[in-house]
Amino acid sequence: MVNPNPRDLALQALNNFDQKGLLPRYFLEQSFQKYPGLSGRDKSLCVHITNGVLRWRLRLDWYVEQCLDFPFNKLEARILNILRIALYQILFMDRIPESAAVNEAVKQAKAEGRTHLGRFVNGLLRGVIRKKEGLKPFPEGVGKVKRLSIEYSFPQWIVEKWIRELGEARTISLLKASNEIPKLVIRVNTLKTTRPALIERLVAKGISVSPARFSPIGICIEGLNAPVAELEAFNKGLFVVQGEAAQLCGLLLRPPEGACVLELCAGVGGKATHLAEQVGSQGRILGLDIKRGTLVRLRQTCERLGISWVYPLVADATRPLEKLLKKRFQRILIDSPCSALGVIARHPDIKWARKESHIEELSRLQGQILTRACEVLAPGGSLLYVTCTISREENEGLVESFLEEHPEMYVVDLAGSAPPLVREFVDEEGFFRTWPDVHGLDGFFAAMLAKK
Q: Does residue 216 share a domain with residue 130?
């Protein structure tokens, strides 16, 4: 099987996203499995270009629009993605020769036998190169929201939302930080190794690493030219890929050794496996999720890590759980579905996959899950509610409305209950928060609730 050009794979990923809504990260994951002979360098280039286009899409479109002599909306979607890919390389990637970016784009445009499109792409890109120093990052004479939307390449509704909740200066700071390319962070599997030992092992393989700034079990990896899943240490189960903010959240619940913990919306198991390390082999983690395929991946992760006391369960967390579970729990973690606006730096496709209407839908869903969790929480038990978003309706606003309807529940101030190393992230209301612009971490929120 002939391996595809990484730019062609990036184009397919972007086209599939536009046409079918398939998130590019999932398309590329499937493609890399389909083409096992694709080099690590080509995989990295493909991911970098795809995410770069998604990160700067509106700004790239504005550059294209400045060079057109016909209305922007008349441009074919496929040709627009070809131009976006080329312009990202020309304007944001110093190591790619401009001529290479132009030539590859022309080839892509001609692929369907339409020679005139190749000439059009060639002319537009070379025009951009000639005047790129004078290109303006946003149009003049437009409103504040539209200017920020184009300059930082964010949908207007997110810009408006953050200005409303955080103010203009803080929004600009957050937009900038959310466009930074984040470091790859892993969490040490403490059942098999230690952070110093894993660092030594990775360095011996020529990999550039450093201890995470905040998490005591985190390691930052830089300049990796191959997928992390191809590393020997990964396949031996010495670590999992998990952002530092998520690692810190995993330290908040503090289950005792041997405890039985329920996790709702467990996903692929980042937090479930972290909890499993804490409770030890005499404990038990019940990981519930509505998606069977996701729980298959959770089980695979547990097998790789050497964890046999995580039990996946397919169920809907918005439905009553008492008959299904037949017990109450002293510790519950909700890794809540959310708009994920706090991890846009890591997953820039979120900007374009989310709509403003999703916020209300998600808030309603989150409230239902909290209610069901409360029903199976034992008196005196603790419930940790976690999101990876920056959205009042899904975070403190949701907690406030939930408490109004459930007088038997109350907020536990994390300033007093969290481990000392996490307390710097606790705000005046007792909630855990990390911010991309303040801490250089993903934007997470966590609230500890308890039952009287």
A: no
Q: Which helix (H) or strand (E) holds 20?
A: helix 6-20
Give the Cα separation of 26 and 17 in Å (integer): 10
Residue 297 corresponds to which tokens in the numbers above? 């991946």
Q: Find all residues with CB under 8 Å of 361, minimum gap 6, and list them.
A: none
b/e code 382-415 from CB counts within 10 Å (16+ = b): bbbbbbbbbbbbbbbebbeebbeeeeebebbebb
Is 388 known to be catalytic?
A: yes
Q: Encode pLDDT of 365-378 as tens digits.
A: 999 999 999 999 99
CA proximity to 184, closest of 152, 217, 227: 227
DSSP code of residue 341: G
C-alpha count within 13 angstroms, C-beta hemisphere, residue 366: 31
Distance CA 23, CA 14 (A): 9
Q: Is the pLDDT of residue 3 over 90?
A: no
Asked if 149 and 196 sit in the same domain, the reply is no
Does residue 373 belong to any structural domain of this protein? yes
Is residue 224 domain-shared with residue 125, that is, in the same domain? no
Catalytic choice (46, 338, 374, 388): 388
What mean pLDDT value characterizes the chain?
A: 95
Whether residues 299 and 165 share a domain: the answer is no
166 with 190, same domain: the answer is no
225 in the same domain as 121:
no
Domain of 205? 184-241
pLDDT of residue 137: 87
Contact 410, 449 (CB under 8 A): yes
Report yes or no on 1 lying in a domain. no
Region 206-229: mean pLDDT is 93
Spacing of C-alpha 345 from chain mean position = 7
Q: What is the pLDDT of residues 132-177, one digit of tens each?
A: 888 888 888 899 999 999 999 999 999 999 999 999 999 999 999 9
